[in-house]
Structures are given as structure tokens and as C-alpha cells.
Amino acid sequence: ILRLIASTGKDYFFIGGLQEICTKFENDAYIYVEIAKKLKTKGKIIARKKDDFFIGKNEDYRFVPDNLLSSTSTLIAGNKIVIFVWSEPYYAILIESDEISKNNINQFNYLWSVAEKPSKLDRKKRISKSNLIKHQT
């Protein structure tokens, strides 16, 4: 699913679950970031400050309080929305809908507007982690 979404060439928006996707599916997440970089798509991510995740150079992110994110995460790119469920068994739901995508992006934009910006040091650390994965694959 990540490769399908990345191949759309659309900018993407991700809400929650970064730690889960970057640990349980580290290689897939890295490949997604690399495909997005090659296609010059940009990503915006909303995460918890305590989460351990990496980012690509074309991604920006912000933090929201822990209680605003659940055991699911949402990825939006174009008219495609993926809902990941992070309880076993793991699964993902793919929805293709202009209307649902638009509504999810509106919610994302609101969260983005009130979310905390990361420090330059935090950003540097997360990009460095992505570079370490690059050398492992």
C-alpha cells in the first residue's frame, strides 16, 4: 500500500503512527521516503513528540499532544486515504474518494495549524536516522 500511495506522485499527509510504521515496517517506510524524494513529492506529518521516527528531507512534521492520536494512523495522498490499524493483527484500509480525502485534509490542516513545530536539532536527528537506514539497506 505504501508503494501504491508513493507512486501516485501526490503530496502526502500522515497523521499518527509514525513510530509504528518506522519500526514495524522500517524498510517499507524508507522505500516510501525514497520514492517520494525521487518523485519530488512533499510530505507533512503529525506525530507525538515522544515517538521514535525518521523523516526524509522533503518531509515536514509537527507535534500534537499524545491524547489526540490513537492506535490508528491515516495517510492521505490525492484521492487515496489509508487507515492503518496498529493492533494485532495489523491491517490497512484503502479508500479512494475525493470527498473523504478533502475532509481528511481539512482535519489535517486544522491539526497542523495548532501543532508544535519541532526544533532544528530534532529535525536534524530524524533526518540523520533516515541516512543510517539508507546505509543498512
Structure notes:
The protein has about 140 residues and is α/β, with parallel strands linked by helices. It is built from five helices and six strands; from the N terminus they run αβααβββββαα. It has helices at about 1-5, 20-25, 25-40, 100-115, 120-135; strands spanning about 10-15, 45, 60-65, 70-75, 80-85, 90-95. The chain has a six-stranded mixed sheet, with helices on one face. A hairpin with a 2-residue loop joins β4 and β5 (about 80-85). About 25% of the residues are buried.
State mean pLDDT (0 to 100 scale). Answer: 88
Shape verdict: globular
Structural class: alpha/beta
Number of beta-strand segments: 6
Q: How many helices?
A: 5
Radius of gyration, CA atoms, in whole angstroms? 14 Å
Strand numbers in spatial order across the main sheet: 3-2-1-4-5-6
Contiguous uncertain segments of 5+ residues: none
Secondary-structure element pattern, one letter each:
HEHHEEEEEHH
Portion in beta strands? 15-25%
Question: How much helicity do the residues have?
Answer: 40-55%
- End-to-end separation in angstroms reads 20 Å
**Main beta-sheet annotation:** 6 strands, mixed
